[in-house]
Specification:
The protein is about 20% helix and about 20% strand. It is of the alpha+beta class and about 190 residues long. The chain has 2 domains: about 80 residues, no CATH class; about 90 residues, no CATH class. The strands form 3 sheets. Strands 7-6-8-9 form a 4-stranded antiparallel sheet, covered by helices on one side. Strands 2-1-3 form a 3-stranded antiparallel sheet, with no helix packed on it. Strands 4-5 form a two-stranded antiparallel sheet. Helix 3 packs across helix 4. The longest helix is centred in the first third of the chain and has 10 residues. The mean pLDDT is about 85.
Length: about 190
Amino acid sequence: MTSFVFMWEGPDGERKWEAVKKGQTAGFMEKLLTEYGVHPATVMVAYAPILFHWVWKEYHKGLSDVNFHNINEEIYGTEPAEISKHKPVDVPVREKPVVKFGWLAPDGRFFNCQYGGHSNLADKIVGDIQYIANPERHLEELGWAKVLSGGGTGKQYAIGMGIEKKLTDAQLKTLQRMELDTAYGISYLL
């Protein structure tokens, strides 16, 4: 499904455009700059919702509106044209790296968050039943383990818990399944 329309001026001054899928945007911009030699100051982007209309609708079965999410198909049809000057951009979709930050309950359930999101997640886990001044410390005292960045330790991830707390078998199994059984600090929690 198309989500973005890029417009730019090539090195020769020719103005161009391309409809691009959401997961292809970073790769497409990189290709514009490195392979096509496009100056960044000439690049513009538009994203949904965008209203496009055929100017001469009699050439399009009387239809005026163009479905932006399927703009390439609207313009070129679902069957490839016999002779087409335009070749849709071929840019691989980059997968977002899986982050393994979060909280690990004593029963082995893992609650994922982004980098720096432990406090907000602890608030959600603790909930509104009663006021807790420090939800992170509260979870640690209850035996929850925190999976955080291992910055400065030489490891990508580190495991932290409350004072004198140890990992449960269920937590250890989850860490092994997540390939975090060698994370910094785990040996102190066994």
